[in-house]
Amino acid sequence: MNPLSAPPSLKIGDFMFRGSMVALVTPMRENGVVDFDCLQRLVEFHITAGTSAIVAVGTTGESATLDEKEHCEVICRVVEMARGRVPVIAGTGANCTREAIDLTRSAMRSGADACLLVTPYYNKPTQEGLYQHYQTVADAVPIPQILYNVPGRTACDLLPATAGRLSRIPNIVGFKEATGKLERVRELKDLCGDRLELYSGDDATAREFILAGGQGVISVTANVVPKAMQDMCAAALRGDAEEAARIDARIAPLHTGLFVESNPIPVKWAMHRMGLIPPGIRLPLTTLSEPCHARLEQELRAAGAL
């Protein structure tokens, strides 16, 4: 379905994602300039590995350090590079509702399949403020939209009750829950019914999240071991808890190791160590501290990434 012409009645049955969706890093040269040649290679890497969808310029993609022109260009280029072979979900959240509308509208024009909108950070809006923020964006731009709750980074918690209200808006189709609280899967299912797809935003609990009724994960770990993440999700989605646990056990150290410092610092270091990207990262983020190198390298080797 083309989101540019999505009908007002669009809901889950019409448009859905499943499995492992990578929260793609934005590759940069050492001077901080976006490396589009490398970005092309990453898109191909994920298509080959069977990744279910690519999230372009989410928070892992350093949305907070790209200016608006760069932000929109990276999304546009990823859509062009994917050429319809894998869905592209554009990160378009902002702590200014007008900016979120502008980014979401640009992503829709670029041909993105859906947008992922993180809760407004720093502002600490009330639940009513969150409802009105998302309602306003959804009313302004008809593309399918996925809400993203990560209070550890935003100081703002989008509660299940508010998600339940928002689930009645036709083009709000999904919810990324990154608290790691598995009880929220049940709460969200109770309040949203089948109106929202539920995605884990916490790699360490993603397997259990899916087995509890979620539809997939928007993953940092998938940047490093995309096939393993996709295989784990596929097993969990078909209810094969034993196989999902077996795969997850091999890569579980990465779920924590890739957060030994603020994301995306460790994952960009790991991908550079794997030869996938240059070493660039933008201030105020810095490269991974030297004392963390040996641990993360060991975990990469154990997971078969090196």
In short:
The protein is of the alpha/beta class and 306 residues long. It has one domain (3-250): Alpha-Beta Barrel (TIM Barrel). It has twelve helices and eight strands.
Describe it for me?
The protein is α/β, with parallel strands linked by helices. Helix 2 packs parallel to helix 3 and helix 4 packs parallel to helix 6. The protein has 12 helices and 8 strands. The protein has one domain (3-250): TIM Barrel (Alpha-Beta Barrel). The radius of gyration is 18 Å and the shape is globular. The chain has an 8-stranded parallel barrel with strand order 1-2-3-4-5-6-7-8, surrounded by 4 helices. It has helices spanning 36-49, 68-82, 97-110, 127-140, 151-154, 160-166, 183-192, 206-211, 226-237, 241-257, 265-273, 293-302; strands at residues 19-23, 53-56, 88-91, 114-118, 145-149, 172-177, 197-200, 216-219.
